[in-house]
Design brief:
The chain has about 190 residues and is an alpha+beta fold. It is built from 4 helices and 5 strands; from the N terminus they run αβαββαββα. It is elongated, with a radius of gyration of 29 Å. The structure holds iron/sulfur cluster (2 copies).
């Protein structure tokens, strides 16, 4: 009985070896054909950082907090972006606007706005959740840190510069003009 089992085992081993030899030849031919197919093609390697790849329009990189043309901040501190974030990467703390010191249209603005870039998975859910298109993901991808604290991007790092025709925040505004958090006009004057 032992002999029979041993014989059967040997036969299977030989069968496997034969199959492997055939596979090797086919795989070698396949491998070389793939190599030769690419030999005549233009190289696709980019000499980064001297040369930087142009990304697709839909690429999601570092975030920006947008302003209206008059300089007011689009963010109204509603925290919907933080609620939508699957990585719990956003921290928003809101404060009240007044006509003497106005940061954004409506009642509130983001006093604190932070994104932890180590947590962020660049899914864009924050962008989708925002009712004022205040937070947008841009194309910047060079986000490396040597200290974990540097990965927290605060409001000053995220907010866009004041546009040419605008004024910095806080602004002194006319009472009753910016009462709506989501203004009727795209760029309220
Ligand atoms: S891109 Fe995604 S993970 Fe990153 S902050 Fe926005 S919602 Fe969170
Ligand atoms: S970025 Fe948009 S969703 Fe987030 S707090 Fe500001 S207004 Fe709300």
């Amino acid at each position: 009985m032992w002999e029979a089992v041993e014989y059967q085992g040997e036969g299977l081993r030989n069968q496997n070896c034969k199959a492997s030899e055939g596979d090797v030849s086919v795989n070698v031919i396949r491998g070389f054909s793939t190599t030769f197919k690419h030999v005549l093609e233009e190289p696709i390697t980019i000499q980064y950082p001297e040369e930087v790849k142009v990304f697709q329009e839909r690429y999601k990189g570092r975030h920006h907090l947008r302003r209206y043309e008059n300089g007011l901040e689009k963010c109204i501190g509603c925290s919907l972006c933080a609620a939508a974030c699957p990585a719990d990467a956003i921290w928003v703390e809101a404060a009240e606007n007044t006509d003497e010191a106005r940061y954004s249209p409506g009642e509130r603005y983001a006093k604190t706005y932070e994104i932890n870039m180590i947590r962020c998975i660049f899914c864009g859910y924050c962008e989708d959740a925002c009712p004022t298109q205040a937070i947008e993901l841009g194309h910047e991808h060079e986000l490396s840190f040597t200290d974990r604290r540097d990965s927290i991007f605060v409001k000053d790092m995220l907010i866009d510069p004041v546009p040419e025709r605008g004024k910095p925040t806080p602004q002194k505004t006319e009472p009753g003009v910016f009462t709506r958090s989501i203004p009727d006009q795209e760029n309220p004057l």
